[in-house]
Amino acid sequence: xxKSVFALSLLMAWGGSLPGLAQTxxxxxxQTATHSAAELKSLCGSGTYRYNLWNQNLNEILENGSxxxxxxxxxxxxxxxxxxxxxxxxxMAPNSLDSQTLSINAQNAAAGARLxxxxxxxxxxxxxxxxxxxxxxxxxxxxxxxxxxxxxxxxLKIVNEASxxxxxxxxxxxxxxxxxxxQPDTKANPAPIxxxxxxxxxxxxxxxxxxxxxxGSHREGPVALRMPACDGHNHGTVAPFKTGVKLLDAHxxxxxxxxxxxxxxxxxxxxxxSAEALKSAHQNGLxxxxxxxxxxxxxxxxxxxxxxxxxxxxxxxxxxxxxQLHSLWEMHHNTDWYRIVRDPWEARRAAAAGQLPVVLxxxxxxxxxxxxxxWKQQLHDFYAMGVRSLQxxxxxxxxxxxxxxxxxxxxxMGYIKALFKPGIGFEAGNGxxxxxxxxPLGYELIDExxxxxxxxxxxxLSIAAQREIYAYVRDKHQGYPLYNSHTRYGPxxxxxxxxxxxxxxxxxxxxxxxxxxxxxxxxxxxxxxMRDFAPPSGGKQQVANNCDGSxxxxxxxxEAWDAHGxxxxxxxxxxxxxxxxxxxxxxxxxxxxxxxxxxxxxxxQGSPPAGSEQLQRFHTQGLAHMDLLxxxxxxxxxxxxxxxxxDHSAEAFLKMWERAYDPNRTLLP
Length: 669
Ligand SMILES: [Zn+2]
Ligand SMILES: [Zn+2]
Ligand SMILES: [Zn+2]
Fold this sequence. Notes:
globular
């Protein structure tokens, strides 16, 4: 139900006035003090849960016997509680805002209920707090404001104490200023900020996928604690499936920095963005980062199935994103160098203070699902948590947009998703281009993102959707900036690359979308051979394409985009299941070279160029982790690439973002 409809029905129910609608603020601490720990647990539940695939809490079912199972508390939902029963709701991720309002609207007058409202810390922390305990007569509703919720999870219990009649309610959790546009403080030093941007990093990837895939943690703290030794079996090995694939199965024990296997450019299971590595990258040229919050419910499901899930870490996309957000805000508050920024001027001030500006973005498949309440309210919820960009789809179609066809393995999952979600289509088309474009809801989402000055990420969208979005912002939104957070260039892919990536690329046609809207493209730094960049007539190839799978392959993409006049950033996709660019020297040099050419390719590299300490490691380690990202650009320079475009990409990103705020913006030539 849309909130406006809800408000209307509320008014109608009480004939235009609202008698009996309680408006009391809760007297939380006082009540808590009068309850023993055991009483509190019986009122508020334990707050611990093992998430399962049906959005319920198995242990709560087991603990509570015949009780109805615990449900996820979302922005808006309906519930029915039969006589003699109770229903419990719990937020799966902590709140970022301190105060929220609960609206509860009776949908019938068959029975009333007792309502118990609590807040819980994260599992394993201290006790719950009882916020409220009140009774509603049959047909009566309430609207109550609670505070002290920051970093805590809300809990609601509805008890129908009557002997007959089912109580039915519409619940709505509202944030202060919901939907209001963030008003930036535009006071900032206008001088360009320094450094390059990495616009696609899964900074909290260790908390994605049920918490059971990436071993190690991005958080600050002693390395031994944050990056503990991995015995090879204690995380996402998909062990029950015995895949036989080295990257997925269990592995020999590893220690960060002490064994050659971690960090490693081919690794997809161990933290690649430790706090130390990020700090080092920042000191060596990383001027701005986009932290992409990511999840995939299928993979999280596999992690649950493999019994690798971490307690208290949700598998559901939306809850997983919130938990990741919480952890990044924690980093923002606990360090003096990591700053989440919500507008370009805030970014400028952070950079001027020597801090790393971090912009939050979303990358999931089940974006703002219908079961979680009105999509706009969900968007506002994430906006309030500082999110400033998102992709309308990821691997599968959403009710906003078609997703780019990409690896074939995703197609059956997209098909199955469409079976369960009638509002989300699936069309096979020719198997290469997804015929599904932007839906009417997708247009509404674009309008709302423009209203909120959010950046529209075209990554992973079908070409059909990209064309529609471009035409729309060109004609209706004065060339509002479009960017692609992580992508490659179609025309220089190898045959195998074309088959794998399909329409998940930039083409000469879509390059125009980014150039004319003042947007930008993020160069995915993963391993892959490329065909030679063919310069336009009169031009000259800068970097010889003679070391497949290394920085030289990536340089081909860079040169092609540079020739298109595109603004280029890096898109490492660290912690995102990407084997990264391989080295040019040492035993793993030129990893994608055809076997018969490899020796010649290695010989063609000559001796390693001098440079920073990071570059010396990059020579044999490749792009193993965030610490070595600046060395990729250094290596490009050593191979003859003109890196001026990317050297100032942090500033280019802010220029793009400021354009989203510019009322006088026009389409560029
Ligand atoms: Zn491991
Ligand atoms: Zn992606
Ligand atoms: Zn990603």
